């Protein structure tokens, strides 16, 4: 069984769109958003996947969501059928933290690849959870987004050395760091040096949920990326659709 986020009560968040971030930006993709997360970012734009009523972990909006309206459980076959109703050849599994549901995801991906050979599967993760062995064998790409100090997560929870070392050695892993201020640059550079993250696999992305904020931060962040030899990524879906579910 898989626990998914919803677009509306009772409707799983499975949709086709353009990938908005990272190395696959602009590619037509099918998205499935899972619920639950082991971290709590103050600026998280999908807090409805984890900040349910009774969860007092800090968030800048301080909004609590009703679990029954924002979470849905389906078996792997049902989820596979909803995904296969779309024609795109790329699947993005996002969250929440998808790797918390590794065994069920392994079953889902096995069904999907049997039904649609050649399907490219990319998994978005905060980098703290090791992938289930069967899922790892079927994954084509990992978009790893370690959380910096400004996220509000303690480093001992968000930046696990053994996991960062493993991701840095995996050629399928692309790192994406969310940047809110110039002060974040030195933290990223330190992590790159400590774990040997390749510059051509390291993206920096402005934090923001509006085009105006993203553009303002992009001006100086693009210059930092150029100076450091990193790659820059915008948030294309925000510019196209705004900060909305199912996009």
From TrEMBL:
Q: Which UniProt keywords apply?
A: 4Fe-4S, Iron, Iron-sulfur, Lyase, Magnesium, Metal-binding, Queuosine biosynthesis, S-adenosyl-L-methionine
Q: Which residues bind Mg(2+)?
A: 46
- Which cofactors does this protein require? S-adenosyl-L-methionine; Mg(2+); [4Fe-4S] cluster
What's one Pfam family here? Answer: Radical_SAM
Please name the GO terms that the record assigns under molecular function: 4 iron, 4 sulfur cluster binding; carbon-nitrogen lyase activity; magnesium ion binding; S-adenosyl-L-methionine binding
Provide the residue positions that the database annotates as binding substrate. Answer: 18-20, 33, 94
Q: What top-tier enzyme class does this entry carry? A: lyase
Residues involved in S-adenosyl-L-methionine binding: 43-45, 96, 145-147
Domain of life of the native organism: Bacteria
Domain Radical SAM core: start-end pairs: 24-243
The record's remark on the cofactor is:
Binds 1 S-adenosyl-L-methionine per subunit. Binds 1 [4Fe-4S] cluster. The cluster is coordinated with 3 cysteines and an exchangeable S-adenosyl-L-methionine.
> What EC number(s) would the UniProt record show?
4.3.99.3
What is catalysed by this protein? 6-carboxy-5,6,7,8-tetrahydropterin + H(+) = 7-carboxy-7-carbaguanine + NH4(+)
Q: By its UniProt entry, which Gene3D superfamilies does this protein fall under?
A: Aldolase class I (3.20.20.70)
Q: Where is this region: Disordered?
A: 1-24
Query: Which residues take part in binding [4Fe-4S] cluster?
Result: 37, 41, 44
Pathway-wise, it operates in: Purine metabolism; 7-cyano-7-deazaguanine biosynthesis
State the Gene Ontology BP annotations.
Answer: tRNA queuosine(34) biosynthetic process
**Assembly behavior:** Homodimer.
Q: Which family does it belong to?
A: Belongs to the radical SAM superfamily. 7-carboxy-7-deazaguanine synthase family.
Protein role: Catalyzes the complex heterocyclic radical-mediated conversion of 6-carboxy-5,6,7,8-tetrahydropterin (CPH4) to 7-carboxy-7-deazaguanine (CDG), a step common to the biosynthetic pathways of all 7-deazapurine-containing compounds.
This chain's protein is named 7-carboxy-7-deazaguanine synthase
Q: What is the species of this protein?
A: Novosphingobium hassiacum
The major lineage groups are:
Bacteria, Pseudomonadati, Pseudomonadota, Alphaproteobacteria, Sphingomonadales
Instruction: Provide the gene name from the record.
Output: queE
């Amino acid at each position: 069984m898989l626990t998914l986020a919803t677009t509306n009560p009772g409707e799983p968040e499975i949709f086709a769109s353009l990938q908005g971030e990272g190395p696959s930006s602009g590619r037509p993709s099918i998205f499935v958003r899972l619920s639950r997360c082991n971290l709590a970012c103050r600026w998280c734009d999908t807090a409805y996947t984890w900040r349910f009523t009774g969860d007092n972990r800090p968030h800048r909006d301080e909004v609590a969501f009703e679990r029954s309206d924002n979470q849905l459980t389906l078996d792997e076959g049902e989820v596979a059928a909803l995904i296969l109703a779309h024609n795109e050849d790329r699947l993005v599994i996002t969250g929440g933290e998808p790797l918390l549901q590794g065994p069920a995801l392994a079953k889902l991906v096995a069904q999907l690849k049997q039904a649609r050979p050649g399907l490219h599967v990319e998994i978005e993760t905060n980098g703290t959870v090791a992938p289930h062995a069967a899922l790892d064998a079927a994954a084509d790409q990992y978009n790893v987004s370690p959380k910096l100090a400004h996220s509000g997560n303690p480093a001992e929870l968000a930046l696990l050395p053994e996991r960062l070392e493993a991701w840095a050695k995996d050629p399928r892993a692309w790192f994406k760091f969310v940047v809110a201020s110039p002060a974040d640059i030195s933290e990223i550079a330190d992590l790159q040096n400590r774990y040997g993250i390749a510059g051509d696999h390291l993206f920096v992305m402005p934090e923001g949920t509006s085009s105006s904020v993203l553009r303002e931060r992009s001006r100086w962040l693009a210059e930092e990326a150029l100076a450091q030899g990193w790659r820059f990524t915008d948030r294309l879906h925000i510019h196209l659709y705004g900060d909305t579910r199912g996009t």
